[in-house]
Amino acid sequence: MADHGKFVWYELMTTDMAAAETFYKDVVGWAASDAGMAGISYTLFNVGEIPVAGLMTMPEGALEMNVPPAWLGYVGVDDVDVSAASIAAKGGKVHRAPDDIPGIGRFAVVTDPHGAVFSIFKGTGDPPPVTDPMAPGLIGWHELASGDLDTAFPFYSELFGWTKDQGMDMGEMGIYQIFAHGGAPIGGMMTKPKEVPAPYWLYYINVPAIDAAIERIKAGGGKIVLEPMEVPGGAWIVQALDPQGALFALVGPKR
User: Fold this and answer.
1) Rounded to whole angstroms, how far apart are CA atoms 142 and 119?
2) Going residue by residue through the chain (255 aa), what tens digit of pLDDT does each one get?
3) Any transmembrane segments, and where (predicted)?
């Protein structure tokens, strides 16, 4: 299936849904609508008619474990149960066993062998329309600060069929390995710096221009954690914390 190994959904789990909705609407330009799911308050972030991401309150268990608000990415798979078993067999962990979302699909929440969290998903309906991954408001890049690049890459490659694209030598930071799905680059991975406590996935939301977006982040109570930086290909990136403490990133074609 074409969606196996493709990021298909993103979700922000936060402590204040209303405040997070306002912040991202202002910063990214998303529209928001209630998903109409029974028994749970779930907001959809949309670009026009296209749903891009979900917003929900953090589950009780996560709050008790002092897990901070965070973005979670969902990778499409052909069979959630088979992939979950494969993840466990390869040294990862299944934190939420495969479960059904009525009328939507089946999912599981997992970590790779080093502890980076992600979800796997198979939808029940038609796949969403193919859109330009660099369009404003969509997620244009997926980045793993891994526990160890040399073992993380084979884990994901075997699981999702990701292939190595260009590898960039970042000096003391080591190699930044771009990876591709279906021949198209979709993200990068590197070994995390020692001072970073745990590995994590980071998602880059497309915006038209970085400097204007930074002003919106600051005005909305967010905090810049990595100042604007030009990346190969001429785009600009910035990394930030939203007011509730979730890490996110923006990418734009110009400052």
Assistant:
1) 14
2) 568 999 999 999 999 999 999 999 999 999 999 998 888 899 999 998 899 999 999 987 776 667 789 999 999 999 999 999 999 999 999 999 999 998 899 999 999 999 999 999 999 877 666 677 788 999 999 999 999 999 999 999 999 999 999 999 999 889 999 999 999 999 999 999 999 989 999 999 999 999 999 999 999 999 999 999 998 888 999 999 999 999 999 999 999
3) none
What separation, in Å, do the N-terminal and C-terminal C-alpha atoms of the chain show?
Answer: 38
- CA dist list (Å): 87 to 6, 67, 109, 117: 16, 22, 11, 12
The percent of the chain in helix, strand and coil, each rounded to the nearest 5, is 20, 45, 35
C-alpha to C-alpha distance for 19 and 3, rounded to whole angstroms? 33
Distance, C-alpha 100 to centroid of its chain: 21
Q: Is the CA virtual torsion 196, 199, 204, 205 positive or negative? A: negative
Q: Which domains are assigned to the chain? A: 7-123 (3.10.180.10), 139-252 (3.10.180.10)
Give φ, ψ of 11 to 5 degrees: -145, 135
